[in-house]
Specification:
The protein has 9 helices and 7 strands; from the N terminus they run H-H-H-H-E-H-E-H-E-E-H-E-H-H-E-E. It is an alpha/beta fold and 210 residues long. The two termini are 30 Å apart.
Length: 210
């Protein structure tokens, strides 16, 4: 999957994906409760650190902005899809001075020690080089949170559905997550199941940044 295909897919469906976060009860009714569970996991980690600066990778329409900015946390949201950035920018206006939005992909994360926490929710699902993404996040921030779909029928169905649109989907086992952390120079600090949807994981550094 090329970056252009990925960007185009989420650009065209920005409003649809944003709608998933409009109502938690409705989302849970349709089996999408994990979206809110992983949000709460990320916010809990941020508050527990405590973090003052967060990088929101693949920020989408900005569902993390309100819960983080509400605790006085500065957020930088990045997303490659133009329509997503437009929605996120509108959401960020409410939190002037605390939230900034930039149109760029994860491949352009070059910061080092610029944040206390880097978060990627619903991103590792579609990444062909997950260790590269995790490594970049681990250099940009001292702590990382990511969500990972588990292997199984649910993910296989998503692979088929998304694959018809030119977007690849991957699943992860617990062993995959440990291996991924090792490749990125990180360690798994906390792992929380998201029901059948997969896992929310907190990573930390296992040594100094190169």
């Amino acid at each position: 999957m090329s970056p252009s295909e990925f960007d185009s897919y989420f650009h065209q469906r920005a409003t649809r994906f944003a709608a998933f976060y409009k109502s938690e009860p409705v989302s849970r009714l349709f089996g999408r409760g994990a979206l809110f569970d992983r949000l709460r996991f990320a916010v809990d980690v941020a508050i527990g650190l405590p973090a003052t600066r967060v990088l929101d990778v693949g920020c989408g329409s900005g569902p993390l902005f309100a819960p983080l900015a509400g605790h006085g946390i500065q957020v930088t949201g990045i997303d490659p899809a133009e329509a997503m950035v437009a929605l996120a920018t509108e959401e960020a206006r409410v939190f002037a001075g605390l939230v900034a939005v930039e149109q760029r992909g994860w491949e352009e994360i070059t910061e080092v020690d610029a944040y206390d926490l880097a978060v990627a929710l619903g991103v590792f699902d579609y990444v062909d080089r997950p260790a590269d993404l995790l490594g970049r996040m681990g250099r940009a921030a001292t702590n990382v949170v990511g969500s990972f779909p588990s292997r199984g029928i649910r993910t296989e169905l998503r692979k088929y559905r998304y694959g018809r649109q030119g977007v690849s989907v991957r699943g992860y086992s617990v062993a995959d997550l440990d291996q991924l952390a090792s490749e990125a120079g990180l360690v798994v600090v906390r792992r929380e199941p998201l029901g059948r949807a997969g896992f929310a994981v907190q990573f930390g550094r296992s040594g100094p940044v190169d």
